[in-house]
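Severity: low
Component: inverse-folding endpoint
Summary: output formatting inconsistent between runs
Steps to reproduce: submit the following structure tokens with default settings.
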């Protein structure tokens, strides 16, 4: 499992880095600049070859990035007959195009992936409301179990994913969230508004739906055990796969959620479990384990897994588009992600979103492995998401990033002279410290959440 996670992590980074650097390389070549090296990864080379144009292609040992090195007088003496092919000899517009090509190519990858997915068709769950907490904002706004959330702030929410994206866009804001709701088996819409005030600002683990007072609808799941963890409390107590929990400490259990709630509230305790097995009743005593979740509270568990229950077909929706509409959807989804990423960075700088949400290589590796295990389409969606994130990150005006170089070129275009080499070196050092600090924070978050 660990090897698979590492493998998917390397594959994911290799795809994103290759696409990004190829953007720089392709536009550079179109502008007449000589490319000396195209490297995927850093450090010692694992493979290399030189093509007919004199470009050295390298796969290096550390798959944490890559680079394209162009001919440049600032890096050493250049023969007079090669000066026209130097990066630094190009116009400001050409240099800006070469630098911007990397992030833009990342966005193009996302557009193509989302377009292909839109043509293939993606199934999603309808955003149907489940339990509504008494005296919550959703309760007072008239939310009811079984209603479907049709739109949020005027934007359609045909799936839970779209609903989630609309809501997380509002984190840290003050005002109202406007919902369009539809009753079961009806076309009539009902409007509701939920007030928010610095909503979930700074929360390490924001509860998007719980904070508003509602959850998703799921069909009733019987307390039927599908798997017993070997060596766990339930296994030790003689509980078997196929058993159905009917009562815990004399309290009747109607479904899986009720069983979980009762066990969860009894960490490190002995509980009497009544089971239905082969038409007869079996009683046993289980000594629960304790696990501390993100809320910092200990919860009990006994090491069993429920039998899966399929959602009704009526709660699933499949969206599939023709080629042109799919391409449009690719642009729309990519544009939304770009705007969302920039907005999230802004909110993080303002302290409205916790820096603990910043993910590093460990989280990326786990997500890459998890989505790949879920299937081709989930993995490609994750790849597109990361591609957009990489493109946006590189456009930030931080020296050492593409955005920092674009900033220098912008200053040059305004002042009619290049930024001094001394100031550029100082900026590179400051930018490097900033990037390393961000990477350290992301890695710390990974370790904390592991």
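Observed output (run 2 of 3):
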């Amino acid at each position: 499992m660990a090897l698979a996670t590492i493998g998917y992590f390397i594959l994911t980074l290799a795809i994103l880095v290759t696409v990004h650097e190829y953007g720089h390389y392709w536009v550079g070549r179109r502008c007449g600049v000589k490319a000396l090296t195209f490297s995927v990864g850093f450090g010692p080379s694992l493979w290399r070859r030189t093509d007919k144009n004199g470009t050295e292609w390298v796969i290096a040992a550390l798959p944490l990035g890559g680079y394209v090195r162009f001919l440049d007088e600032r890096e050493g003496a250049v023969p007079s007959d090669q000066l026209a092919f130097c990066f630094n000899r190009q116009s400001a517009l050409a240099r800006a195009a070469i630098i911007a090509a990397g992030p833009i190519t990342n966005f193009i990858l996302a557009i193509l992936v989302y377009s292909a997915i839109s043509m293939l068709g993606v199934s999603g769950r309808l955003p149907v409301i489940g339990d509504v907490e008494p005296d919550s904002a959703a309760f007072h706004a008239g939310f009811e179990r079984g209603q479907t959330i049709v739109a949020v702030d005027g934007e359609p929410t045909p799936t839970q994913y779209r609903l989630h994206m609309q809501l997380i866009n509002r984190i840290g804001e003050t005002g109202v969230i406007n919902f369009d709701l539809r009753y079961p088996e009806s076309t009539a819409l009902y409007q509701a508004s939920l007030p928010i005030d610095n909503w979930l600002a700074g929360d390490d683990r924001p509860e998007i739906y719980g904070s508003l007072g509602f959850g998703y609808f799921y069909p009733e799941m019987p307390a039927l055990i599908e798997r017993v963890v070997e060596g766990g409390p339930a296994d030790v107590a003689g509980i078997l796969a196929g058993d159905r929990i009917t009562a815990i400490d004399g309290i009747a259990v109607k479904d899986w959620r009720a069983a979980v709630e009762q066990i969860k509230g009894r960490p490190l305790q002995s509980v009497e479990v009544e089971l239905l097995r082969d038409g007869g009743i079996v009683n046993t005593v289980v000594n629960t384990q304790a696990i501390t979740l993100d809320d910092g509270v200990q919860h009990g568990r006994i090491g069993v897994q429920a039998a899966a229950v399929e959602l009704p077909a009526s709660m699933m929706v499949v969206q599939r588009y023709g080629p042109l509409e799919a391409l449009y959807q690719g642009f729309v989804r990519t544009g939304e992600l770009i705007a969302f990423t920039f907005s999230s960075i802004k909110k993080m700088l303002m302290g409205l979103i916790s820096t603990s949400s910043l993910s590093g290589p460990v989280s990326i590796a786990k997500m890459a492995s998890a989505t790949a295990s879920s299937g081709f389409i989930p993995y490609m969606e994750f790849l597109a998401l990361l591609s957009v994130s990489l493109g946006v990150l590189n456009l930030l005006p931080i020296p050492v990033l593409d955005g920092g170089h674009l900033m220098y070129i912008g200053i040059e275009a305004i002042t009619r002279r290049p930024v001094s080499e001394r100031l550029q070196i100082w900026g590179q050092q400051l930018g490097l410290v900033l990037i390393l600090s961000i990477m350290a924070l992301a890695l710390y978050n990974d370790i904390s959440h592991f």
